[in-house]
Amino acid sequence: MLSIIIPTLNEKDHIERVITDLKKQMKEGDEIIVVDSHSEDGTAEIAEKLGAIILMQPKNGNGLARTAGARKAKNGIIVFVDADSVIAGNFLDRIRKHFENPGLMVVGGFDAYTSESKLWKLIYDSYSRIIFLLAKINHRITKECWVPSNNSGFRKEVFLKAGGYRSVVCEDADLMRRFPKTKEIIYDDKLLVSLSDRRFRKHGFFRTVAFWGWSNLKLIMGSNVSSENYKEHY
Fold first, then answer.
1. Residue 47: Cβ-neighbour burial (10 angstroms; 0-12, 13-18, 19+)
2. What CATH topology corresponds to 2-229?
């Protein structure tokens, strides 16, 4: 059984679609937990009407929101997606199938992007493909596990034992520094999520990627960039 965790802040334009799509793939015992940071647009109310469990969380960063959802989850497998996600039709089935392996700790999928521009979509998806391949190569060499925090599944006990996500920028890379090195990970590029390009459009693709790069460099140097002042954090 799966617990799907979605952090939200003013996501009324997206939350109904992702919950509706998830419910089509859910089985008995699965649950959706929406961790809402006191949205002012009715996001939590929409999600609750659709059957989601609502957990209210101060605006302390989406990393902590995801971790709070994981602690509340009743099931042993936790799945993370974002409110603006458009999930593949077999998304939950693929996760379920992977975790039939009792030794598997984590599975990570591939993030694509939606865009009105074919050129920018190509740029976004090419960037995402490079990151996905680098993660696989790094794991093969070091056994370190990096998976996107908006398209992944974990065994709950392993995730929480590692400390979960923290309130830092690039919380998935931060978790990798604490997560146990293991062979028990699957990188599945058919585990597909399409994300809105709204952040790239608002702040600029190259500027955003450069900021993420700087944040990752800080993590390598043993520090981090707090999400306290990060634009659009939850």
1. buried
2. Spore Coat Polysaccharide Biosynthesis Protein SpsA; Chain A (3.90.550)
